[in-house]
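Example record

The entry below shows one chain as it appears in the dataset: sequence first, then structure tokens.
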Amino acid sequence: MTILRCLAFAAVVSAQPLPLHQSELRVAPPRAGWELGMISSVAADGKGTIYLLQRGLSAQPVVAIDEQGKVLREWGKGLYQIPHSIRIDPAGNIWTVDAASSSILKFTPKGEKLLDFAVGEQPQTKSQFNGTADIAFTTDGHLLIADGYGNARVLEYDAHGKRIRQWGTAGSGPGQLHLPHGIAIDGKGVVYVADRENGRIQRFSREGKYLGEIDGDGNKTFSLAIRANALWIGCQPRNEPNGAPGWIMKLDPETGRILGRIDSPGHHSIDVSAKGEVLTGVRPDRLLWFRTN
């Protein structure tokens, strides 16, 4: 078992700031009365289009914009209860997850629905949040789903929505989970899970074998991304209410060493470009872009 204690508060605040400056990408309303709500998740396709998953009522849940903030298209009205995460697969398809209905939806970049299924088996809870939290893609086209609200498991599906396996149990021991909120997989097949309420990032094989963890030591990790052999995380102090200011950090995925940090008011969902620029949403309706120039 490997436990890497690297994310203590003192280590975070003393980490080298990354050479990125914060800017705000303002979305231009396409019509009168149109406005965004909370941007729960953001994904960029690397070709100039940014996809937002938002919870406001006057815009549709999925909003595609260009890099100047112009709305290109929007879709998804009536398909969501709590829009939670949006991701782009290697083929350019748009995937979303719903944290209440536990639905997984796949679209073309133009918004044509290709697949819609619910993972099911959600327990009775008092919270509206009772479903899936995030999704990642394997090199052979399968889906890994963090089913964190209500359940404490990771699911694997094939590209057609057929379940292959599931793993994970509730708890705080090695390999156990308490609200798996973000998920990512690297080129070696190592699965990283943001075990939010346990304040750590755990590593697993694709089959669910526990490989070790990065101990958050007081910080809750909400989001994960892997780019260019680096693990990026969005986190905040554990003793603050959700949505409090925190950090976006770049880590060495094998040692857990902090390679750099960004002080950020947003961290619920992050996307990282090939050149290391970071996008994230901030409550109530802001979109931040940490840029190199």
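Notes for this example: Residues 180 and 241 are 18 Å apart (CA to CA). The chain has a mean pLDDT of 96.
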